[in-house]
Automatic annotation (TrEMBL):
Alphabetized SUPFAM superfamilies for the sequence: P-loop containing nucleoside triphosphate hydrolases
Matches recorded under InterPro entries: AAA+_ATPase, ATPase_AAA-3, CbbQ/NirQ/NorQ/GpvN, ChlI/MoxR_AAA_lid, P-loop_NTPase
Protein name: MoxR family ATPase
CDD domains named in the record: AAA
Coiled-coil ranges from the UniProt annotation: none
Length: 318
C-alpha cells in the first residue's frame, strides 16, 4: 500500500460511515485519525446526536471486533475487565474475560461509573494490557476506546479525573446538526422500515487488521520537520504560561499531537506535516488537557476560546 492507495481507502471508509452518520464529517475524520495513531477518543454531546451510532458505524466499516459497555453507577471493575472463577470440575481458576477484550470498545456514558470502575480502563488504554491476579493479558495493537459522556445531566455522574482524560488523544464535541442535515436525516429514515438498524445501512467492512497495520507502517514513515515539532512544543508550552490557564498541557500531549499530525498528513496523501495540520488538531487534542483559571471561568471563557486565542498568538513556521 502506498500513500495514494491509503488516501483512497480512507475516502472509501468515510463514505461507508456516512451511510449511517450524517453531518459529522469532521468528527468522523478525527475518530479515524485517532484509530490510526493508536489513540482513544472521548465524545461529548447531548443525547440523540449519534454518538453511539458513530461508534457502531466506525466498527462496521472495520473488520474488527466490537463490544459496548453501558456504564452505570453500580458497574464494578470486574464487569469491565473480567474475573477469575473457580472451576470445581478441574479444581482450577478460569478467566472469564470482560468486554474490554476486544478491538473497538464503546464505553457509553463513561462518567456515570464510579472512579474505581473508570480507573479499570486506565491500564488498558495506556498499555493495551489488563492485569488480573498478577497475570498480564495483552489486548492487541488494534485496541481502541471510544467513550461518550453527556454534558447536560450531571446528577449521578463522576467527572473523569485529569489523569484519565490525558489518556484520550482527542475530546470531540458533538453538537446538533444544522437544519438541512436534520431534514436529510429524517427524509432518509422516512424511506426505511421503522425498526431499521445499522446492519441494514449497507456499511462494508473495508479496514482489516492487516490494512490497519499497513496504514500505520505508512504513517511511521511520515516526516515531521523540526520547524513543525518546534511549533507543536511552542503551542503546548504556551498553555503553561497563559493567564487564562491554571494547568497547562503535558509533554505527552505534545507527543500525541505530533502523532496525530502525521496521520492527518497521510490522510491527505502527503509524506510530510504542515502547520495547517497542527492548527486543525490543536483544539481537539488539548481542550481536555488544560484546566482554566477561575478568572477565565468567571468570564465565561471555554477551553476552545482560550486555545483559539493562544493559537493566534504563537507564530506558525513559514
Amino acid at each position: 500500500m502506498d500513500l495514494g492507495e491509503f488516501r483512497n481507502l480512507i475516502a472509501a471508509v468515510r463514505g461507508e460511515i456516512g451511510k449511517a452518520v450524517q453531518g459529522q464529517d469532521a468528527i468522523i475524520d478525527l475518530v479515524l485519525i485517532s484509530i490510526f495513531s493508536g489513540g482513544h477518543c472521548l465524545v461529548e454531546g447531548p443525547p440523540g446526536t449519534a454518538k453511539t451510532l458513530l461508534a457502531r458505524s466506525v466498527s462496521a466499516a472495520m473488520a474488527l471486533d466490537y463490544r459496548r459497555i453501558q456504564f452505570t453507577p453500580d458497574l464494578m471493575p470486574g464487569d469491565v475487565l473480567g474475573v477469575n472463577l473457580f472451576n470445581f470440575q478441574t479444581n482450577q481458576f478460569h478467566l472469564t474475560k470482560g468486554p474490554v477484550f476486544t478491538d473497538i470498545l464503546l464505553a457509553d456514558e463513561i462518567n456515570r461509573a464510579p472512579p474505581k470502575t473508570q480507573s479499570a480502563l486506565l491500564q488498558a488504554m495506556n498499555e493495551r494490557m489488563v492485569t488480573l491476579d498478577g497475570v498480564d493479558y495483552p489486548l492487541g495493537p488494534d485496541f481502541f476506546v471510544l467513550a461518550t459522556q453527556n454534558p447536560i445531566e450531571q446528577q449521578g455522574t463522576y467527572p473523569l479525573p485529569e489523569a484519565q482524560l490525558d489518556r484520550f488523544l482527542f475530546k470531540l464535541v458533538v453538537d446538533f446538526p444544522d437544519r438541512e442535515t436534520e431534514i436529510s436525516i429524517l427524509s432518509r429514515h422516512a424511506d426505511q422500515a421503522l425498526k431499521a438498524d445499522i446492519n441494514k445501512a449497507g456499511i462494508r467492512p473495508l479496514v482489516t487488521s492487516e490494512a490497519l497495520a499497513a496504514g500505520r507502517a505508512l504513517i511511521d514513515a511520515i516526516h515531521l520537520d523540526k520547524s513543525i515539532l518546534t511549533y507543536i512544543v511552542d503551542l503546548v508550552r504556551a498553555t503553561r504560561s497563559d493567564a487564562d490557564i491554571l494547568y497547562g498541557a503535558s509533554t505527552r500531549a505534545a507527543d500525541a499531537l505530533a502523532a496525530a499530525v502525521r496521520v492527518r498528513a497521510a490522510f491527505e496523501g502527503r509524506d510530510y506535516g504542515l502547520p495547517d495540520d497542527v492548527q486543525a488538531l490543536l483544539t481537539p487534542a488539548l481542550r481536555h488537557r488544560i484546566v482554566l483559571s477561575p478568572s477565565a471561568e468567571i468570564d465565561g471563557r471555554t477551553p476552545d476560546d482560550v486555545l483559539r486565542s493562544l493559537r493566534n498568538r504563537v507564530d506558525a513556521p513559514r
